[in-house]
UniProtKB/TrEMBL annotation:
Presence of keyword Transmembrane: no
Protein name: Amidase
Gene3D superfamilies assigned: Amidase signature (AS) domain
Enzyme Commission number(s) from the entry: 3.5.1.4
InterPro entries according to UniProt: Amidase_CS, Amidase_dom, AS_sf, FAAH2
The keyword Hydrolase is assigned to this record: yes
Keyword list, A-Z: Hydrolase
Annotated ranges, domain Amidase: 24-464
């Protein structure tokens, strides 16, 4: 039996039935990593000895009659999470050897659920790129085309899943860092509602692992099936036991509907600030056809949709104001000088990014107030619709581009070049108001590259986009990963 490409749900069933042991699953996963990861470079910090010990412990626990949600399931963890005994450097050379003393809260939850951690997955420097490469661990390649990126910043996790290196992974998302790699690599990811899953211990090197409430950023699950996303989200969800967890637990409401024909869906595939590549539009159309065939109510336009230009502007300002928080004073002053030279009528996203980097607290508060208007607009929309389906990024995975200054990079959209960071507008649509969004594979481009969409749902109704993702998976059907056998044998 080839176990490496089965879902976590399927593996759990086989473990319960005694058809396989965790030790066997773990050894097979490690063998595949050792055989194939030289070409992919997804697993930057292997932890095979401890994984084998954890697998044996899981088998012994099962023999005693224990059964936990992830008992014996091999998984990976994004490098940016603290794992006691393993380096956490975020790809930053000065912190190459930083070793945290404690596990991040989500790593603890994985272990408490019985998961077997195979190792950590690669990231971009400081998690601040749509690609995953750094001087310490090198470049992670897309499993479908090694000349292209796997995405970022959870690119190592997505590539690992697509390559059969563990059944689940955990990542993080502030600018599509869960959704974009999933879209590029043909797997599933879920950006939870802001604040749903505790992020303590997912911090830069040397930063104290204290409970915080970061603006925009979330931690979340990645998997090879939509149902596995729900399985892992149930492990991850809940407040930090040091803060809100002292007083309350989280109980998510059920999905609004169980049947496809009961869903009301708004599809959006064009953005006023950047075009959508034909391959991505085809993916949206494929999802639209599946929804219609399943009897769902589908609309392409609604006056209730918050203004996309305003949404992108507010998101960009909030995102880039936080991205420079730790910059040296002299760098900040250089940015202030550049921003002062902008024309008053320059409303490009490049200008918004630069102004955001040097925004005052007053500016930030104004932008945050505008965000609240958008949140209210989304509430009104979700009274009429259950979900919004739209692109994750304008293109499929693009060729590696490691120009040191990202401002000089360009993305090619059907033969026309656009500023590199403009591609973030689709990710920001859900991130800025803090909404849940599930990335779902929707087929392949003419070049054979994966193409996905994201399903945006109402705040704290994460089970609604997740359930719609499950139904779409049933309608569209999966497609095999590179090297995956046609059927388990």
């Amino acid at each position: 039996m080839e176990w490496n490409f089965l879902t976590a749900e399927e593996l759990a069933g086989s473990l319960r039935a005694g058809e396989v042991t965790s030790a066997e699953l773990t050894d097979e996963a490690i063998a595949r990593i050792e055989r194939d990861d030289k070409a992919i470079n997804a697993i930057c910090v292997p932890d095979f000895d401890r994984a084998r010990t954890a697998a044996r412990d899981a088998d012994e626990a099962r023999a005693r009659g224990e059964d936990r949600p992830l008992l014996g399931i091999p998984v990976t963890v994004k490098e940016s999470y603290n794992v006691a005994g393993l380096p956490t450097n975020w790809g930053m050379e000065p912190h190459r050897d930083y070793m945290p003393a404690e596990d991040a809260v989500q790593v603890s939850r994985l272990k408490q659920a019985g998961a077997v951690v195979l190792g950590k997955t690669n990231v971009p420097v400081g998690l601040q790129d749509v690609q995953s490469f750094n001087e310490i661990y090198g470049t992670t390649n897309n499993p479908w085309d090694h000349g292209r990126t796997s995405g970022g910043s959870s690119g190592g996790s997505a590539a690992a899943l697509a390559s059969g290196f563990g059944a689940l992974s955990i990542g993080s998302d502030i600018a599509g860092s869960l959704r974009t790699p999933a879209h590029f690599c043909g797997v599933y990811a879920h950006k939870p509602t802001l604040g749903l899953a505790a992020g303590r211990g997912m911090v830069p090197p040397l930063a104290p692992a204290w409970p915080t409430e970061p603006d925009l950023a979330v931690v979340g699950p990645m998997a090879r099936s939509a149902r596995d996303l729900t399985l892992l989200l149930d492990v991850m969800a809940g407040p930090d036991p040091l803060t809100f967890g002292v007083a309350h637990d989280v109980t998510l409401p059920p999905a609004r509907h169980e049947r496809l024909r009961d869903f009301r869906v708004l599809l959006v595939d064009t953005h006023p600030l950047i075009p959508t590549a034909s391959a991505v539009r085809a993916g949206v159309d494929r999802v639209a056809d599946a929804l219609v065939d399943g009897g769902a109510r589908v609309e392409r336009h609604s006056p209730l949709l918050p203004d996309l230009v305003e949404a992108a502007t507010v998101y960009t300002q909030l995102l880039f104001s936080s991205s420079v928080a730790r910059f040296p004073v002299e760098t900040y002053e250089q940015l202030r000088t550049r921003a002062a030279g902008l024309g008053a009528d320059d409303r490009s996203l490049d200008a918004v990014r630069l102004r955001g980097m040097v925004s005052s607290h007053h500016d930030w508060m104004e932008a945050s107030n505008r965000r609240e208007l958008h949140r209210h607009g989304w509430r009104r929309l979700f009274a009429e619709f259950d979900a919004v389906v739209c692109p994750v990024t304008p293109t499929p995975a693009f060729p590696h581009d490691h120009l040191p200054d990202p401002r000089e990079r360009r993305i090619d959209i059907d033969g026309v070049e656009y500023p590199y960071f403009d591609q973030l507008v689709w990710a920001g649509l859900a991130t800025m108001p803090g909404l849940p969004a599930t990335a779902v594979p929707a087929g392949r481009s003419p070049e054979g590259l994966p193409v996905g969409v994201q399903i945006i749902g109402p705040m704290f109704e994460d089970r609604t986009p997740l359930r719609l993702a499950e139904l779409l998976e049933q309608e569209i059907g999966g497609f095999r990963m590179p090297g995956e056998p046609a059927s388990p044998a």
